Amino acid sequence: MAKLYFHYSTMNAGKSTILLQAAHNYRERGMVPYLLTAKLDERAGHGRIASRIGIGAEADTFDDQEDLFAKLTARMAQGPVACVFVDEAQFLKPDQVWQLARAVDDLRVPVMCYGLRVDFRGELFPGSATLLALADEMREVRTICHCGKKATMVVRLGPDGQALRDGAQVQIGGNESYVALCRRHWREAMEDRPTPQG
Questions:
Q1: For the domain 4-142, what is the CATH superfamily, name and number?
Q2: What percent of the chain clears pLDDT 70, i.e. is strictly above it?
Q3: For residues 116 and 13, what is the distance between their CA atoms, to the nearest angstrom?
Q4: What is the mean pLDDT of residues 112-120?
Q5: Closest CA to 141 of 117, 122, 120
Q6: pLDDT per residue over 42-70, tens digit each?
Q7: Where are the alpha helices (DSSP H) in 29-88?
Q8: Per UniProt, where does ATP bind (predicted)?
Q9: What is the mean predicted confidence (pLDDT) over 123-141?
């Protein structure tokens, strides 16, 4: 039975590596995966999903205006698709997550989404929030903070190397811009201070 999956984590947890391995497993068994990634993230090149460990694959792209149900319907009309893999799923619009859910239900194709849960301010991305609400199954991809605890947050670094507290939710970047931290060290980096009671 087809399902909508959400594999979520913070930066640098290996989401793209897991996606690429899973897609490879389908190909190895003679099945065809369909890979999608956000058009706005071209760090690995246009229409390419790449991992920090050096593996990559070509992918179709989506932008925030596309109807993904229509896109998947058109792709499946060209030939069988065993599974859809969506990288950078945090950039999906809520309507697009509903479109992917419809593809699972009506086209009976599994859709596996991989993305960030929260931004550098500790706030849910709209696409991730909708995936958390609609996904049939969710899996956390874990990574660690410099202290050894599980990292669940990310800070965005400014040119001076200090954590930024404000800015646009979306800014494409890698290790030069973002650091994964546990909640305690994220709070310290963001200079979180308890609000006095009274």
A1: P-loop containing nucleotide triphosphate hydrolases (3.40.50.300)
A2: 85
A3: 10
A4: 90
A5: 117
A6: 665 677 777 777 777 789 999 989 999 99
A7: 68-77
A8: 9-16, 87-90
A9: 94
Whole-model pTM? 0.84
Q: How many CB atoms lie within 10 A of CB 66?
A: 16
For residue 148, give both structure tokens: 């050894």
- For the question of residue 137 being annotated catalytic, the response is no
Binding-site residue ranges for ATP? 9-16, 87-90
> Phi, psi at residue 77, to the nearest 5°?
-70, -20
Amino acid at 51: S
Please tell me the distance from the alpha carbon of residue 62 to that of residue 4, in angstroms, as a whole number: 18
Q: What per-residue confidence (pLDDT) applies to 198? A: 45
At which residue do the structure tokens 């950078």 appear? 88
Where do the domains of the chain lie?
4-142
Whether 143 shows a pLDDT value over 90: the answer reads no
Known binding residues for Zn(2+) are: 145, 147, 182, 185
Q: 51 and 20 in contact (C-beta within 8 Å)?
A: yes
AA letter at 130: T
- What 3-state DSSP class applies to 96? helix
Q: What is the pLDDT of residue 166?
A: 66
